[in-house]
């Protein structure tokens, strides 16, 4: 459908579609009589439109500065009816009158389906209803059709008389189509175009006659390939060819289809790709604010170079990696705004994706989802670029003696960094560098040979934690601090029982005084044997390994 003429009507349609489900049918039914009284030559206040649809007057703060032109307002109301229908399941049985879909209405008035589409553009009110078979389609109430026909009786009669062909005309069209398809191998579109020029009939009329003949007499079908739907494999081939730059007319000729059907197949496959794609994000209550777009998408995302100057790369670093230090670091507020925007864009894309109806696909909706995902990826790349030097700093501390080179470690660490971006919850107040450091270090603990890196000491030893903190401090002392790392450790240790937590903390000196206690000392304190204390410690370390397994990246949850 065409885009909204008035931005205020687009916003109103979004608000009504998100309102109470039990009220949405009333909004749709109220919009139709309003379209019937709109005078294209007049202008109407926004308050008047809202009151006619909802029965309530909007607050003065929401009023538009300019009135709404009648011509654009009628088109917007017709689109609003469809958009609100798309927001919930409105069934044919919800109306106690005859309901037509496009083909049945075309048969009832003896016109082509293209004529019905022209009627819609001229003001025929339509709804998208769930038919008895479960399919959602554009439909028309009998009362809506009668109102439209009565106001345009003469022009509609001309359409009906123009579309009525004689038996002799139809026989001539079928014979010529048979000959052209057999000897010139023309597609249906080409045959219809040539016969339309010869007979003076509309191209859509010729196409309808041929398709109707093929359906009624499949043994004599002119274009037998068009009788059945294309298989999933053929649709995927068409979609991939289209993505590689093959034009729709060429695909239409190759598969004996119309260009419109090729575009419908492409959009169907686009929709299926989007529906199959996982869109994971960290939800935040701010996403539901009425002015969320203004707050989140308009936030200042520029990092001030003066506030966060770039640092010189280490002298032993290759020049290629040295360029990473030219990217300014993110201050706390900018980092928060970026993560909020990234997750909000994916939230909007996921919410819009839920409205996709494979049986009735709107290209504008697909483009909107894809644009949101592309914008989200751009924000994600900005976050990653600003934190790539963190990967280099940690990777340098884990080189030497192992089979992995610095570049291999950096490549491995970059994957962990990207996964950390997906999982980080900006609302908890922690800095991303702390969270990403844990993800990268834990990944190295799994990927680097076990004989060089002991997971027990890596996860709980005080010396390793301090070593990590020192390494991170060289990366950005203002962003990563030992208290933040200790907070992360405390959250993980909180998953243990009180006795297990006390043994691990005291044995490795993780409490406030930093005193390391032997297993014998712990046994006397707890009234247990040294061996029993060792067993409890082993059990606790196994729990920690399970908590920190790759499937559960969210260390701070």
Tags for this model:
557 residues; mainly alpha; Four Helix Bundle (Hemerythrin (Met), subunit A); 26 helices; 5 strands; disordered C terminus
Radius of gyration: 33 Å
**How are strands sequenced across the largest beta sheet?**
3-5-4
> What percent of residues adopt helix (DSSP H or I)?
55-70%
User: Quick one: biggest sheet?
Assistant: 3 strands, antiparallel
Which ranges are low-confidence, i.e. pLDDT below 50, for 5 or more consecutive residues?
303-307, 450-484, 550-557
- Kindly identify the CATH topology of the largest domain: Four Helix Bundle (Hemerythrin (Met), subunit A)
User: First CA to last CA: what distance?
Assistant: 44 Å
- Helices and strands: which structural class? mainly alpha
Strand tally is 5
CATH class of the largest domain: Mainly Alpha
Could you say which overall geometry the principal axes of the C-alpha atoms support? Answer: elongated
Q: Note the total helix count.
A: 26
Number of domains: 4
User: Do you know the CATH architecture of the largest domain?
Assistant: Up-down Bundle
């Amino acid at each position: 459908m065409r885009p909204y003429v008035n931005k205020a009507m687009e916003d109103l349609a979004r608000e009504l579609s998100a309102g109470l489900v039990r009220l949405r049918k009333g909004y749709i039914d109220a919009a139709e009589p309003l379209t019937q009284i709109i005078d294209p030559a007049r202008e109407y206040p926004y308050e008047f439109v809202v009151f006619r649809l909802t029965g309530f007057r909007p607050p003065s703060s929401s009023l538009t500065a300019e009135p709404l032109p009648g011509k654009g307002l009628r088109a917007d109301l017709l689109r609003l009816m469809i958009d609100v229908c798309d927001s919930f399941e409105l069934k044919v049985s919800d109306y106690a009158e005859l309901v037509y879909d496009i083909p049945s209405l075309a048969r009832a008035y003896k016109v082509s389906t293209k004529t019905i589409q022209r009627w819609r553009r001229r003001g025929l009110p339509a709804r998208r209803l769930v038919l008895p078979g479960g399919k959602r389609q554009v439909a028309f109430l009998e009362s809506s059709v009668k109102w439209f026909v009565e106001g345009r009786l003469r022009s509609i009669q001309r359409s009906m008389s123009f579309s009525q062909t004689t038996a002799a005309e139809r026989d001539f069209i079928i014979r010529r189509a048979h000959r052209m398809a057999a000897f010139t191998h023309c597609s249906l579109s080409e045959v219809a175009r040539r016969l339309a020029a010869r007979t003076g009939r509309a191209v859509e009329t010729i196409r309808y006659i041929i398709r109707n003949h093929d359906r009624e007499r499949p043994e004599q079908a002119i274009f037998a390939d068009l009788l059945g739907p294309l298989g999933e494999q053929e649709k995927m081939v068409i979609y991939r060819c289209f993505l590689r730059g093959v034009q729709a007319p060429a695909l239409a000729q190759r598969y004996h289809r119309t260009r419109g059907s090729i575009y419908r197949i492409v959009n169907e496959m686009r929709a299926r790709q989007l529906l199959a794609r996982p869109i994971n994000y960290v939800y935040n209550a701010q996403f539901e604010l009425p002015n969320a777009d203004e707050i989140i998408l308009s936030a200042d995302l520029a990092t001030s170079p003066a506030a966060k100057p770039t640092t010189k790369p280490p002298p032993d670093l290759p020049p290629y990696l040295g360029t990473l230090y030219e990217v300014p670091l993110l201050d706390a507020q900018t980092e928060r705004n970026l993560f909020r925007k990234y997750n909000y864009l994916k939230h909007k894309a996921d919410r819009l994706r839920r409205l996709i109806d494979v049986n009735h696909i709107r290209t504008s909706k697909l483009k909107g989802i894809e644009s949101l995902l592309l914008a989200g990826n751009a924000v994600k790349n900005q976050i990653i670029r600003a934190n790539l030097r963190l990967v280099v700093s940690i990777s340098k501390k884990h080189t030497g003696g192992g089979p992995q080179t610095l570049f291999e470690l950096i490549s491995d660490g970059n994957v962990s960094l990207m996964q950390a971006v997906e999982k980080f919850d900006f609302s908890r107040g922690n800095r991303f560098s702390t969270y990403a450091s844990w993800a990268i270090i834990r990944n190295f603990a799994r990927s680097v040979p076990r004989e060089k890196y002991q997971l027990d000491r890596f996860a709980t030893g005080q010396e390793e934690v301090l070593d990590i903190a020192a390494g991170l401090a060289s990366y950005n002392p203002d962003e990563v601090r030992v208290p933040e790392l200790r907070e992360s450790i405390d959250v993980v240790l909180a998953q243990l029982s009180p006795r297990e937590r006390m043994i691990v903390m005291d044995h490795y000196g993780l409490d406030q005084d930093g005193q390391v206690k032997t297993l014998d000392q712990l046994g006397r304190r707890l009234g247990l044997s040294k061996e029993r204390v060792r067993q409890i410690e082993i059990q606790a370390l196994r729990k920690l390994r399970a908590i920190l397994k790759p499937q559960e990246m969210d260390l701070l949850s």
